[in-house]
Amino acid sequence: MAAIKIRALPARLVRLVEDLRRKEDRLALLLSLVIGALVGLVVVAFILLTGRLTALMYPPGGSGWRRIVVPTVGSLVTGYLLFKYFPLARGSGIPQTRAALFIHDGRISLRSVVGKFVCCSISLATGIPLGREGPAVYMGSGLASVIARRLGLSRAQIRSLIPVGGAAALAAAFNTPIAAVLFSLEEIVGDLHAPVLGSIVLASAASWMVLHLVLGDNPLFHVPGYHLVSLKELGVYVVLGIVGGLSSVAFVKMLLWMRAKFAKMPRASLWIQPVAGGLTVGILGYFVPQVLGVGYDQVERVLNGDVILKVAITLAVLKIVATSVAYASGNAGGIFGPSLFIGSMVGATVGSVAHLLFPASTAGPGAYALVGMGTAFAGIIRTPLTSVIMIFEVTRDYTIIVPLMISNLIAFYISQKLQKEPIYEALARQDGLHLPRSSSRTHGAVPLVSSAAREVPQSLTPEMKISDAAERVKDSALESWPVADELGLIGMVRTRHIAHALDQGKLEMTIERLMQIARRSESDKSVDMPHVHNDQPLSRALARMRESGHKVLPVVSRANVRIMLGIVTFADILKEFGVESADELDYRDHPDL
Amino acid sequence: MKTPLVQPAAPTPTATVSEFIATFAVILAAIVGLLLFDTALARVDVAERKAYAGREFATGQQLIAQGKVEAAIEHLRTASTLDGDNSAYGVALAQAILADGRPTEADQMLSPLLERNETDGATNLAMARVLAKEGKLDKAKSYYHRAIYGLWPRGADKSRTAARFELIDLLARANAKQELLSELLPIQDDTTNDLAQRKRIAHLFVVAGSPARAVVIFREILHRDSKDADAFVGLAEAALSLGDFATARTDLLAAQKVMPEDSSSLKGRIALTDSVISLDPTQSGLTLPEQVRRSRNLVQTTLASVRKCLGVQAPQVAVALDSATLLLVSGAAAGQAQSVEQNLSLAEQLWGLRRSRCAPDGQDGALALIHGRIAQ
Questions:
Q1: What is the pTM of this model?
Q2: What class does CATH assign to A442-589?
Q3: In terms of domains, do B260 and B303 share one?
Q4: Local confidence band at B316 (pLDDT 50, 70, 90 cut-offs)
Q5: pLDDT in tens, B172-221
Q6: B318 touches chain A (CB under 8 A)
Q7: Do the Cβ atoms of B7 and A210 come within 8 Å?
């Protein structure tokens, strides 16, 4: 782009552009509309191309062997592409989007966006049972990031456009503009009061309009008008909330467990791992074709009451297994769509049983499938507000909203109790990314760790002898010292432990050994390598100090917790809050540090 | 010395004005290009989906014609899913589901279609059928009216008439004579050229309790074709309904004359008419003793019918029997004219009792006709 030269620009145009660049509000408004339209069109192209490719892969009346071969070959192709060219396009895209927002200053490369588009298209078209929404969010955010960087915007502006692109993508991918706004705020930003709300709404609306312009006014699912048959039915919806919550937890735990197993395999096998998912899906799909693909056509049938109890149970279980294996093995695609599929089948199961037992006082299984979708979404994705609005928008049916809220909240509560970490955070953590939780997010002018942190002192090494370590720390007032090997931080060691070992005459003991002894000691709370990130509030650092007993904490990168960016001490924090402590502060300017 | 920590990142390049404009130009070009690409792709996609849906719909209709409703539902559902805009697919699917004995599900399918287009004649007619099946007659009638006055993209007149006749049949089955008559009156003169339709309307006028209108239509038909046996039979029906048994017999004989090959069913009707004429105590020209005899005979025949349907031990029968016996005994002492009146009154009461307690019996056809005339 830099190579492009435009000569003799009219002075008026130059003034207009300069004016626009100066006024950030106007630029944000314009960019929201432009990004919304562009992302909407890209996502529509993604949907249409994937659909056409699917029709090619699975022509009507095609033989059964295709259902084994196509997903296997598809996963082999995407596995190679992901390994060789697009390593960041693996998986859903939501954790990667959040990582871009919170760790990489909003940077997502165009290559990753293209990779996501290509790999997900192949993956979804060949029948891998993953969703298109997560990847679409990544593509949308990525495009926003690319555009912002090309326009030479500031880091803050680039970051602010990430959720804008994400919302635009989701509005087009799911035809739910309001839920897209909420999802972007609730899940990506993690703050419903984010100042980018206006831009997000604009982009979502622009994207949705583009979708309607091209594909017409069709909801994702055509659903009959369901309503509460009797008040007794609320009891059944409570049961659905419980079952939905437990199913969500089972799905999340299975997916994370499998992913951890795949992660332990040799790195050289990374390109072939997706084939394990593709083959498993193929074998399951050979016997039960409905398992293949995202399965929205099957969801529509169930929502319309076309359901057999045995089939619903089978599909719920098989989809949990197929999606878990497909995702864990590293195929490209999200868990947004599969969540809705699983939820609808769980709902249909509960609804069928309830209707069998109480035909007069319950609605048909379709109504429960509808509520089940929201329930699973609330349980798996953990965005309760988005799930309610999304079901309303997907179906355009308001009458079922109260049972939906009840079931969703129960599922959300159960999921929170039994699976502490939300799925996207857990996935990011498995990748070594420490993304901030919404609870740890700050509002307003709260002092951050970065404001009180200082440079990293020279670390101790694990093989260092006690005598050498004592020599290193003797002139320092630091109460704990970081210990690092060639790959980075491995933990903290207390100065008093070194001194104690010295007193005991254990001069040849290594720091590593000393840390092992300290770990075994029940009184030592530093086993889990306490740390903070520089975008966290100082109050969080104080809480970590209280939990660990260390008055010195390493400040580490969110992208890799072994990369130390600095340290923060108790005294520094007090100073930052304006509380001077003479006995603690004197080492602050110590020449050794 | 404390050093503020800022995450290391590549410095953000500040684009020049030219680069800024060029970027926007590329974005706008991409938007236009993608819009054209997407629109073309969407058109192809929609065309293929519609074609596929059309094939599925045709297969579904064929299966329906073969009576394979369950298999048809699969294809119709696919058609409806692929082309949700085409309400004909949704309506066909709902009707197939109704034929499969699932009216509630069919109702749920049609409701959103009606929300989208509440004036669509076919959808309203389908909903009317669903409601009729569910026994919700009042609502069904309302939807039939919406179908009759709704929009039909093709063959509106024919479709509206068919919808009205469905409603008329429903009303006839429900014996809602007043409503039936009010549905018949608007189409009394609508189908002048359709002879079969005219005969049907005339017959329905008889059912609706307006035989005089039926007579006018049948005479008009005979005016055009004096050898139309059906019209003669229709006239006979109307005459029977009016209590004019002799005319009915004349019309039936005329029908037999123009259609001798179909005399078996006519013979039965003529025999019935003869039986009515021989039993009817109100027939003009009878002597008083004959009137008394026939009226007594009517009481006895009616009593036998009541006894047959309610059983001998039924308390109502016992009371009626006592009253009848008493009346028949006292009838000898009373004046003959008074006796005829009393017999007819008693027979009418007994017939009323029978009608309120028992279902119509084909064997009592003559009795029904005579009592119909007495009631007039």
A1: 0.71
A2: alpha beta
A3: no
A4: low
A5: 888 888 888 888 888 777 655 678 888 888 888 888 888 888 888 888 88
A6: no
A7: no
Please tell me if residue A32 touches chain B, with a CB cutoff of 8 Å: no
* B37, B141: one domain: yes
In a domain, B327, yes or no: yes
Contact A110, A142 (CB under 8 A): yes
Same domain, B122 and B169: yes
If asked whether residues B49 and B142 sit together in one domain, one would say yes
Residue in chain B closest to A15 (alpha carbons) equals: B17
Closest to A122 (Cα-Cα) out of A81, A162, A175 = A81
Residue of A nearest to B29 (CA): A38
Using the beta-carbon criterion (under 8 Å), do A225 and B111 form an inter-chain contact? yes
Mutant choice from A42, A121, A150 vs B, greatest count of B C-beta within 10 A? A150
Has residue B7 been placed in a domain?
A: no
B97 lies in the same domain as B108: yes
3-class SS of residue A490: strand
Residues B44 and B147 in one domain: yes
In chain B, positions 32-71, which contact chain A (CB-CB < 8 Å)?
Answer: 34-35, 37-39, 41-42, 44-45, 48, 52
For chain A, the maximum distance between any two Cα atoms, rounded to a whole number of angstroms, is: 83
Domain extent, residue B345, equals 282-376
Helix (H, G, I), strand (E, B) or coil at A58: coil
Rg (CA), chain B: 35
Residues of B in contact with A209 (CB under 8 A): none
Question: Is position B142 within any domain?
Answer: yes
A233-439: CATH superfamily: Clc chloride channel (1.10.3080.10)
Q: Is residue B225, in this structure, part of any structural domain at all?
A: yes
The domain boundary residue, chosen from B174, B189, B221: B174
The answer to whether the CB atoms of A34 and B7 lie below 8 A apart is no
Q: Do B38 and A17 touch (CB under 8 A)?
A: no
Flag whether residue A216 sits within 8 Å of chain B, measured between CB atoms. yes
* Rounded CA separation B92/B61 (Å): 8
What is the 8-class DSSP label of residue A460? Answer: B
A589 contacts B21? CB cut-off 8 A:
no
Least confident interval from A180-189, A488-497, B259-268: B259-268
Q: Are B270 and B249 in contact (CB under 8 A)?
A: yes
Flag if B1 and A589 touch (Cβ within 8 Å): yes
Copy the structure tokens of residue A203: 């982009």
**Chain A within 8 Å of B111 (Cβ-Cβ)?**
yes
CA torsion through residues A344, A346, A352, A357, sign: negative
At the topology level of CATH, where does A24-215 sit?
Clc chloride channel (1.10.3080)
Is pLDDT above 60 for A185? yes
Which of B174, B207, B241 is where one domain is finished? B174
Task: Please indicate if any CB of chain B lies within 8 Å of the CB of A125.
Answer: no
Taken as a whole, chain B contains a residue count of 376
Cβ–Cβ below 8 Å for A224 and B109:
yes
The residue ranges of every structural domain in chain A are 24-215, 233-439, 442-589
Interface A-B, measured as beta-carbon pairs within 8 A, has a size of 145
Nearest Cβ partner for A6 among B21, B28, B30: B21
Which of the two residues, A129 and A297, has the higher pLDDT score?
A129
Angle (nearest 5°) at CA A245 between A239 and A250 = 125
Q: Checking DSSP bridges between strand A480-485 and strand A488-494, what pairing results, if any?
A: antiparallel
Which residue from A366, A406, A405 is spatially nearest to A388, judged by alpha carbons? A405
- Total domains, chain B: 3
Report the chain B residue with the minimal C-alpha distance to residue A555.
B5
Which of B6, B32, B34 to probe the A interface (max A CBs under 10 A)?
B34
**CATH number of the domain encompassing residue B84:** 1.25.40.10
Q: How is residue B69 written in tokens?
A: 């409703």
**Could you report the per-residue pLDDT of B77-119, keeping only the tens digit for each?**
889 888 888 889 999 999 999 998 888 888 888 888 888 888 9
Contact B157/A at CB under 8 A: no
Whether residue B197 sits in one domain with residue B150: no
